[in-house]
Amino acid sequence: MINKLGNTALQGIQRSTQGMTRSAAEIARAGKPGDKTNMTRALIELKQHEQAAKANIKTLATADKTLGSLLDVKA
Questions:
Q1: 12 burial level (CB within 10 Å; 0-12, 13-18, 19+)
Q2: What is the pLDDT of residues 13-69, one digit of tens each?
Q3: What is the domain partition of the chain in residue ranges?
Q4: What is the pLDDT of residues 3-19, one digit of tens each?
Q5: Residue 48, pLDDT score
Q6: pTM of the full predicted structure?
Q7: Distance of CA 18 to the CA centre of its chain
Q8: What confidence score (pLDDT) does residue 74 get?
Q9: Residues in Cβ contact with 22 at an 8 Å cutoff, skipping those fewer than 6 apart
Q10: How many CB atoms are located within 10 Å of the residue 55 CB?
């Protein structure tokens, strides 16, 4: 169960990283003439992906700590 939680957190971090990459690319394109990129939306999405990544990192750290505690108890 803890291993599954860690894997889920890692997948969440990957999705957040991909989302940040897409948002950053959209923001970079916003300065080009003729591009109808919505910079405000892209900036908000970038911040949302950042917060999601931070939450997943905390989840991963908690799973790691819990696994370490279980191993200490088991030993």
A1: middle
A2: 999 999 999 999 998 888 777 776 788 899 999 999 999 999 999 999 988 888 766
A3: 2-74
A4: 788 889 999 999 999 99
A5: 98
A6: 0.76
A7: 8
A8: 64
A9: 45
A10: 14
- DSSP type of residue 36: -
For residues 7 and 65, is the Cβ–Cβ distance under 8 A? no
Specify the DSSP element, H or E, that contains 48: helix 39-74
- Residue 31's identity, in one-letter code, is G
Report d(CA 19, CA 4) in Å as an integer: 22
What six digits make up the tokens of 35?
Answer: 């591009």
Q: Is 49 exposed, middle or buried (0-12, 13-18, 19+ CB in 10 A)?
A: buried
Query: To which residue do tokens 């370490």 refer?
Result: 68
Question: What is the token pair recorded at 28?
Answer: 């970079």
